[in-house]
Amino acid sequence: MTIPAYDPNNIFAKILRGEIPSHRVYEDAHVIAFMDVMPQADGHTLVVPKAASRGLLDADPAVLGPLFTAVQKVAGAVKTAFAADGLVITQFNEPAGGQTVFHLHVHVIPRYEGVPLRQHGRGMADPAVLAAHAEKVRAALPAPGTA
Ligand code: 5GP
User: Fold this and answer.
1) 146 alpha carbon – ligand 1 mean position (Å)
2) Residue 23 CA: which ligand 1 atom is closest?
3) How far does residue 9's CA lie from ligand 1's centre (Å)?
4) CB pairs under 8 A, 24+ apart, for 119-123?
């Protein structure tokens, strides 16, 4: 599989540079996390490394530990905030793999017994609702420096 070059004009690179807004829930030295604008379930959150790579295969391996440490932290908060029965954690590579934004990211999606997910990348959420959801996730995260 040939991996195309990283394009710094992708939407998550713009969010990382602060050029477009997002409903941010978490940031540390290595990652930011924010609400997905087309959530497959309420609370659908994206965890995005600050380091540029298109997907998993071209990522610096040193990025992956801090990325998944943050995924674990955010996932716990999302599960608590949305009283989820479970979580699905996904990461897509290249269009054939379902990827639509070409900066490495991990989806954290609450799941409930018997409730199907909404479609991937369809149906823009109300910004006010996303803002309220982001606040719930932030409130469920441990205070910085405590975990
Ligand atoms: P992928 O298919 O690349 O794994 O997922 C990209 C995700 O980014 C989709 O779930 C989509 O809803 C979300 N997304 C696309 N554009 C934006 C945006 O401008 N802001 C945010 N917060 N999420 C976005």
Assistant:
1) 30
2) 22
3) 14
4) 119/40, 120/38, 120/40, 121/38, 122/38, 123/38
Site of tokens 């799941």: 111
pLDDT tens sequence across 33-55: 999 999 999 999 999 999 999 99
Q: Which residues pair with 74 in a beta bridge?
A: none
Q: Is 114 left (phi over 0), alpha (psi -120 to 50) or beta?
A: left
* DSSP conformational letter for 27: E
Pocket around ligand 1: residues whose beta carbon is below 6 Å from it?
11, 22, 34-38, 92, 98-101, 120-121
Question: What is the set of active-site residues?
Answer: 105
Beta-bridged to residue 31, according to DSSP, are 49
What residue ranges define each of the domains in the chain, with the CATH number in brackets?
Answer: 11-140 (3.30.428.10)
What pTM does this model have? Answer: 0.97
Residue nearest to atom 17 of ligand 1 (CA): 37
pLDDT number for residue 65 = 98
Q: Phi/psi class of residue 142: alpha, beta or left (left: φ > 0; alpha: ψ in -120 to 50)? A: beta
